[in-house]
Amino acid sequence: MQKAKKRFLQVAIVLFIGVNFVLVYIDDEKKVDRIAYISDWSQVNQMDMEEKLHTSGVLAATEANHVYFDPQTGSFNEFLVKEGSQVSAGDALFSYTVDNYYEAESNLIQEADQVEGEIAAIQQAITQMRAYQIPQTNTEASPSLEITSEEMRVEFPQDPIQANLVKEQYIVEKEKELAQKNAALTSINNQLQELQTTGDTITVESPYEGRVASVSSSLQDPIITIESASLHAEGELTEQERTLVQAGLPVEISISEKDISLEGTINHVSDAPKGNVTVKDDSIYPFAATFELDEEEANMEGAKEEKEETVENPEAVGSSDTMDQTEEKTTDGTEASTKDNENQEASIEQALLPGYHADVTIITKSSEQATVLYEDMIAQGNVWKMTKEGNLLKQKVDTGILMNSMLEITSGVTVGDAVAADPESQFRQQATFITPIKWDHSWKRIISPRDTAWYEPFLIGFLSR
Q: Which CATH class is domain 32-49+364-457?
C-alpha cells in the first residue's frame, strides 16, 4: 500500500511538471506568466574609446641632405668639417680651386638667378595660399586652389577643420623651403664674393642645419651628408597592419631607455613594400611619425594659469603702484616660465639621439564619450534590456570599437539602460524579471519613521487590497 502511494505520488509530480511544461511551450498567446531571475546586470555607460595598434620603431633624422662636388669645376682643397660635427646654415664645409675663373663666375651668377626665381615662386605660392578663404560649411565638391607659380592644384578636404589644417601645413612646408632657398642664395653670393676677391678659391657653405653624418674622403658623391637636428620615429608595418594605418593618425611614442613619452602624428606611410617583393615572403611597409614635446604645452599652460591668478588676485587691486608691481611680477613670471620651457625642451632634444628604439602606439580609431557595455554581455549582436516596466526585451545592437573588455554600442541602447547578464538560460522575450534581495541593507533603517514615511505606502497598499 505504501509503495502504491509512493508510486502514485511520483507519477503525479511528473505529470504536473509535464503538463506545466507543455502549457508553457504551446502558450502562443502569452497567457502564462514567465519570470526571469536576474542575478547579474550592468548599466550602459559612457567613456572615451580607442582602437590601438602596437608596434616598434626607432628614432632617426627627419631629413638627410647631400652636398656634391663636381671635379670638372676645379681642384678640391680640403674639408672644413668632420664627421659628427654640428653645422648651421652658412658654416664652411669645404674649399676648392677653380680651373676657369670666368666660367666659375658665370655659373655662380646663373645659380643665383635661378635660386632667386625659385624664391619668388615660393613667396607667390605662400601669398596665394594665405589669401585663399576656406568655405565655412561642408561643400558637395572638394574645394581646391591652383598655385600659378608652381602650376599645380591643391585639393582640400570637404570638412572645414581638416581643410584649414591642410592650408596651415602647406604654408609651414613652404616657409621651411623658403628658408632653405634663402640660405642657399646667401651661400652662392658669398662664394661669388670670395671668388672675385681671391681670383681662384671658392668655399662651399652649408645651406642646411644639423649634424654631419658622413664625409667622403674619396670624394665620391655625395661628399658630405648632413642630417637634420629634428627627429622622427620610423617603423615597419605588416600587410594586415598597413590596411589600418594612414597618414594623419595620432601616435604615442615611448622611449623606455629615457622614460620619455611623446605624442605625434603619422606623416608618411609607404604605398610600396620594402625591398624585393616575393610570393613566399611577407611584404613590409615603412612608416614615419613626427612628434612634439609634451612639456612645451604643459609649461605654457602653467604660465598662462599663473598669469591669470596674478591678475585676478584681489590684493593686487588697490593702487596703480600695486598694479604696476603685479604686472611686473606677471611679466617676470611668464618670462621665467618661458625660459624654463625652452631649457626643458632643449634638454629633452639633447636626450634624444638617432638610433634610440621606441614603442609606437598608433590610434587607428577613436570615439569620444562613446556608449559602452561589457563585451561578454552581448551575445550574437543582441542584449537583454531590462525595461522600466519590469520586463526583459531582446534588443539588437550595432557595435564599434573594442577596448579591453568594453565594447562600443553605436545603436540599440542608450546611456543608463540596464542590461541583464546572468543567467541567460532563463531569459525570455517580454518576461517579467526579478532581482536578488539586497540583504546588506538595514531593514530597520528602511522602515524607520525618522528616515521615511513607510506607513503611508503600507496603508495605501493595505486598503487597495
A: mainly beta
